[in-house]
User: Fold these one by one.
Assistant:
Number 1:
Amino acid sequence: QVQLVESGGGVVQPGRSLRLSCAASGFTFTNYFIHWVRQAPGKGLEWLAFIPHNGNNKYYADSVQGRFIISRDNSKDTVYLQMNNLTTEDTAVYLCAREDNDFDIWGEGTMVTVSS
Amino acid sequence: QAGLTQPPSVSKGLRQTATLTCTGNSNNVDNQGAAWLQQHQGHPPKLLSYRNNNRPSGISERFSASRSGNTASLTISGLQPEDEADYYCSAWDSSLSAWVFGGGTKLTVL
């Protein structure tokens, strides 16, 4: 079935880095833009970044511009989010979402906790 | 980045009708409309309505979306206990070149 599965979350110290993965299945991966969205505990959704089909012209939220890098490997049907210089404010569930004009398919998310 | 504005909470009775609102500006909601997402506690969001106000396959006709200028609305008719959830609107902001979300509305079905 059509699905997205995130992985790579965990507990990390402030200032360190982490790379998240979003593995797609059940659809033609190269036809879609993929987004990363996060949700801090008890808070709302925050859009972070998206990457188009060919990996060019990526867009980022101001809050992560310069620290986070989105990329994709179309041979593996996977999108990545490289997160650098993490702070406690980055503690959240990180979800990837497929864009079919809007966010029509979501993964379950992976939890990232930034703590010393 | 400025987001969309949603009321934090709405409460309505069983089988009643709830209308949730989402206010943006000429660069987002008024430009391309807003999509609506439903999120139950502990679960990922689920798309209820595209920005063109069409429902994805499998979404009940009880959910209907509309827009007037800068404000998008989601109307849920015949409220059921399972409609109790958080509802978010989202839109592409052409000025920010970014997607923006509303802060979410917690719908309580009494």
Number 2:
Amino acid sequence: QVQLQESGPGLVKPSQTLSLTCTVSGGSIMSGDYYWSWIRQSPEKGLEWIGYIYYTGNTYYNPSLKSRVTISIDTSSKQFFLKVNSVTVADTAIYYCATASSGSYPTFDYWGLGTLVTVSS
Amino acid sequence: SYELSQPPSVSVSPGQTASLSCSGDQLGHKYTYWYQQKPGQSPLLVMYRDNKRPSGIPERFSGSSSGNTATLTISGAQAVDEADYYCQAWDTNTAFFGGGTKLTVL
């Protein structure tokens, strides 16, 4: 069973870049079975899909965040990454990495425990 | 943007049937997914593609979808089922989540 672990700074200043890492274990990050995803959750916006990446490097983003978000992958280290530029307090949330089973209608099968990121000066 | 609407709360007595609804435009023509989230935990997939139950999810969970509404049904709800439930669907290659329903079993 795939296991996911988020890591990164818990506090980011406004206008700076939020950077998170998700480490994959229990499965191959090069498996064509999954898209590697980022989802966030806040009291204000609820659950919000950020985007995902395939092991080939192909990315798919939520249009509402696309201009500020970059997802990348390093298959050798079994990690994928999230960067959100120009953050504001509205980006304060619990950030989850998750698997999305590949196909036309992906299912978010496995989730990490989540990491809280607070945007504050 | 695609909107999914869920009632904020539903209450049910133990052993009774809980019906959690999720509404969206032409939702019956899309697949609906359901996630259970307990306090301090990550969401857990409990139903996918309208009515498919993942391995390990009890048979008392079932799903259906028609028209503009999808429904997650918990037959014989138990105290352990008390949680927030979120529906999710895909529209124009973007995943959208409902605002969630807090299920209280008491």
